[in-house]
Design goal:
Layout: H1 7-10, E1 13-14, E2 24-29, E3 50-55, H2 72-82, E4 91-96, H3 98-113, E5 120-124, H4 142-152, H5 157-160, H6 163-181, E6 195-200, H7 208-212, E7 222-227, H8 233-236, H9 238-255
């Protein structure tokens, strides 16, 4: 199901359950080391008026043989070009951690291109991008980098203990973390679309105050919602999170022109 009738866009976008009658598309961007499949079951909990579109990044799953991006600007440039055929319907963007940064920068890139803009930006598990990042992790030696991954809690122990899996996984994760950390923030005018920020109450990577700072990046409405859990609350509190996302998207659809 490719809206443009061209195979190129399908490289980037997955449709776990095509929904041609949907009035709104939700594009979901993975966290560092994550993949499109992290969101593939979300369609079951989303409103019937929403079509779930999962973003497939190089270096994982079907694109395993492609080198991952190591910098934010070229990744966002490639995304903004590839997603053009998919922006024929109103859409919203959701991203967790690294995905939140990519979704935000994509919205700004689309604005610079004069392309359609998101009706809502949903970000989770990441401090506002204009705040100082603090310690950088992408350049740590492997033992320290792996120890940091373990502390973050998002990678199964069976992966961390398996050398062959780590040989595949570590370069992708390090590249993703570099995308998240390596480029300085460039100030632009705030977005016009509303932003909703989600956080975990014990997430050391995104405190309530750091989530609240997203307010400065939009002229639209803004709110923060907190959930039990740490950095990967999108797993431990998936049900409540998806109910909140669905409520936001219901409001977006309600406001669309008839």
């Amino acid at each position: 199901m490719n809206p443009a009738g061209s195979s190129s866009a399908d490289v980037w976008v997955g449709l776990p359950r095509p929904n041609p009658a949907a009035r709104l598309r939700l594009f979901c961007f993975p966290y560092a080391g994550g993949s499109a499949s992290a969101y593939s079951a979300w369609w079951r909990e989303l409103p019937a008026s929403v079509e779930l579109c999962t973003i497939k990044l190089p270096g994982r799953e079907a694109r395993l043989r492609e080198p991952p991006f190591q910098r934010l600007t070229p990744l966002v440039g490639a995304l903004s070009a590839a997603l053009g055929p998919w922006l024929t319907k109103p859409f919203a963007l959701y991203g967790h951690s690294l995905g939140a940064l990519v979704a935000f920068e994509l919205a700004r890139a689309l604005r610079r291109r004069g392309a359609p803009l998101p009706r809502h930006l949903l970000v989770s598990g990441r401090r506002a991008p204009h705040l100082p990042m603090g310690e950088a992790f992408h350049a740590l030696p492997d033992p320290e980098f792996v120890a940091w991954i373990r502390r973050m809690g998002g990678t199964p122990d069976e992966v961390l203990r398996e050398p062959e899996l780590m040989e595949l996984f570590l370069p992708v994760l390090r590249a993703d973390v570099a995308v998240n950390e390596a480029e300085p923030f460039v100030a632009e005018a705030p977005l016009d679309c509303p932003i909703t920020a989600f956080g975990g109450v014990v997430d050391e990577r995104a405190s309530p105050a750091e989530l609240e700072a997203w307010r400065e990046l939009t002229r639209g409405s803004f709110r923060v919602e907190m959930f039990p859990g740490g950095h990967f609350f999108l797993r431990s509190a998936q049900g409540p999170l998806l109910r909140s996302i669905s409520a936001v998207l219901d409001d977006v659809v309600r406001d669309l022109p008839a």
